[in-house]
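Box 3.1. Reading complex inputs
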Amino acid sequence: EAGVTQSPTHLIKTRGQQATLRCSPISGHTSVYWYQQALGLGLQFLLWYDEGEERNRGNFPPRFSGRQFPNYSSELNVNALELEDSALYLCASSLWQGGTEAFFGQGTRLTVV
Amino acid sequence: AQSVAQPEDQVNVAEGNPLTVKCTYSVSGNPYLFWYVQYPNRGLQFLLKYITGDNLVKGSYGFEAEFNKSQTSFHLKKPSALVSDSALYFCAVPLVAGNMLTFGGGTRLMVKP
């Protein structure tokens, strides 16, 4: 069974540009989560999508947005990139039931120059 | 608010010795608790979880964790460490609504031959 897949693996953007990151969940999982892992800041929850709807978002500005498609895949968009957006962005998926473990992709390394 | 703390940034242990990676939690109600491991430049891998029941939870790769309600702890343990166990370990708890996780700061485990 395929795990969570993310693309691209690496992404280099210039400050002020937009970045789009993609995630395909494990088959059967309806919930997709995005996390940011920035150096020195640990793992921060960004967004949660389930059944095509944004269910919750972390303490990030509105220029971080995304969506979930009917096949449950998801994309994360970061507008007006800033240098501090450089981080590893991790996608995870799970069943919607509480207490179920989430499975993570390998991440997208975003570098803003 | 739900939270977990990992009091040690790094744990050093010799190969073959037992290891413990500490985690304490602060949650309302009965906690769901998780351990994940991250190898360099990779996403997180699920190790084990506590939902309810036995206080000793067994997980992947020979790891286990002990839930202690009186001490509000969920320490990760392994009877005999391997060099290949060297990685970054995260304790996590779901935020109040949904399965999105809040993570501890991470503990780097270094197993030396």
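In summary: Chain A touches chain B at residues 4, 6, 31, 33, 42-43, 45, 48, 50, 55-56, 58, 90, 92, 94, 96-107, 109 (CB under 8 Å).
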